[in-house]
Amino acid sequence: MTRPRVLSGIRPTGESFQLGNYVGAVRHWAAMQDENECFFFLADLHALTETPQPDALRRRTRESVAELLAMGVDPARSTVFAQSHIPEHPELAWVLGCLTGFGEASRMTQFKEKGGGTVGLFYYPVLQAADILMYQANAVPIGEDQRQHLELTRDVAARFNGRYGETFTLPGAYAGKPGERIKDLQDPARKMSKTIGGSGTVWVLDEPAVVTKKVKSAVTDTGREVRVSDDKPGITNLLTILSVATGKAVPELEAAYAGKGYGDFKADVAEAVVEMFAATRARYVELIADPAYLDEVLAAGAATAGAVARTTMTTVRERIGLLAPKP
Ligand code: ATP
Ligand code: MG
Asked: Cys-Cys crosslink for 226: which of 95, 185, 237, 257, Cβ 3.0 to 4.6 Å?
């Protein structure tokens, strides 16, 4: 029996991956590797919307491989590759872009939230659709923030299939639960993000003392009660984090902290986060010391991913009517 195919990506931006990337995405990736045929990629083309320094982008792409492996992605079981190593991604994005309405793309909240920007930013969800459809993925483990992009992917895939015949698998949502959207510690109205960074972002490679400092200075409200509430976004966020880090349900945690102040609670959140990333930090130090190995992982990944991508694109080119070059 063939296993369902899963695909997901992450941008090699920021200082390292952040707590929300782990909670909303990468921990699910690590857990899915036996039951699924997994493709995980570093979205270096998507990172270009931030116009990173060239050296920084190269360095972060390699570091990102080490971080993924340190968080439990296993290249012996999963295909790990860099998006730019497979030039079929932007090619398919162009084809899909010609089936995507301008208004449809304009409705993407991520684009609207950034308040305009480059054509690249506008095109971002179309490239993402290409990433997913290229591999005929059945499921896409993503954080809440990407749900709308996945819907667009399904719509465009259905449109292609309707027009040119069954070609693409419609990917099912494997989105994290709404509670798994981790908020910025300094501004719990917005999600934690690599490119925002600062003291509201916990990096998975942060030293324990730094994690503790960031968690202890997290914005809370003026009350005293540790409970989930719309008017307590900071405490709600910390409860989500503690729940993920300890495996305990939120109501159980609310009961445990009844009558206790924010101080004890925050100290426990900090300790739990440090504990959650202890093994990741240790493994990362070993992995980053061997860049040749990290490059080998990417080369093996590109070989596997490239074979699938070429198969998909041969079909796509034929279906849409591009004249094949003489062999
Ligand atoms: P950037 O600021 O570069 O966009 P990011 O932190 O948003 O960085 P992405 O590379 O865009 O990270 O996304 C990688 C994965 O992490 C996606 O599946 C996304 O849904 C998930 N993710 C990102 N931020 C969060 C968050 N705060 N909570 C839960 N999941 C998140
Ligand atoms: Mg993002």
From this structure: 257
